[in-house]
Amino acid sequence: MVGAAGTTVGAGTASLLRRAEAPVPAAVVALGTGAAWTGLAVLTPAWTAFVLAALAVPLIAADLRHRRLPDVLTLPAYPLLVAVAPDPAKALGAAAVFGGAHLVVHLVAPHAMGAGDVKLAGALGAALGSVGWAALPVATVLAAFVTAVLAAIRRWRNGVPHGPGLLAAATALVLIRPG
């Protein structure tokens, strides 16, 4: 049942990305989200993990394929992740801190990080707030590590996508210590 719901959510997010001119393989995203939700149903009751999976599968696909993290998914992530947070005030604070730190990097070195990464970082900060304040620097290091691995395994024309690292780090930390 949970897997079927995840598959439906994945099909919907793939459809949104197609309309946002960042098409991803719909079957892969739908089945990937369904599989993620099935696994999460066994691992954790935390709603934050389910929302992250619903965002991670399509956004990783979009960033790897198009080097874009479309607003159609990054902007709704804010209210979704704050709504499922155990402490919404802490989630908003963590979103401001994590997003703000990424904004500073973007302003100092715009070619190092795109605006989509900044918007996504803010939303993911809300999820990381449910883990605790220490999760913010840990997520930064984990995300940088994943991005470095992506850089090492493939040559990227227009810079290495950072969204997959951000999403992997936030999801891993929420799974390790759900709120």
From TrEMBL:
<dbReference type="InterPro" id="IPR050882">
    <property type="entry name" value="Prepilin_peptidase/N-MTase"/>
</dbReference>
<dbReference type="InterPro" id="IPR000045">
    <property type="entry name" value="Prepilin_IV_endopep_pep"/>
</dbReference>
<protein>
    <submittedName>
        <fullName>Peptidase A24A prepilin type IV</fullName>
    </submittedName>
</protein>
<feature type="domain" description="Prepilin type IV endopeptidase peptidase">
    <location>
        <begin position="51"/>
        <end position="151"/>
    </location>
</feature>
<feature type="transmembrane region" description="Helical">
    <location>
        <begin position="121"/>
        <end position="153"/>
    </location>
</feature>
<comment type="similarity">
    <text>Belongs to the peptidase A24 family.</text>
</comment>
<dbReference type="GO" id="GO:0004190">
    <property type="term" value="F:aspartic-type endopeptidase activity"/>
</dbReference>
<dbReference type="GO" id="GO:0005886">
    <property type="term" value="C:plasma membrane"/>
</dbReference>
<keyword id="KW-1133">Transmembrane helix</keyword>
<dbReference type="Pfam" id="PF01478">
    <property type="entry name" value="Peptidase_A24"/>
</dbReference>
<keyword id="KW-0472">Membrane</keyword>
<feature type="transmembrane region" description="Helical">
    <location>
        <begin position="91"/>
        <end position="109"/>
    </location>
</feature>
<keyword id="KW-0812">Transmembrane</keyword>
<dbReference type="GO" id="GO:0006465">
    <property type="term" value="P:signal peptide processing"/>
</dbReference>
<feature type="transmembrane region" description="Helical">
    <location>
        <begin position="35"/>
        <end position="57"/>
    </location>
</feature>
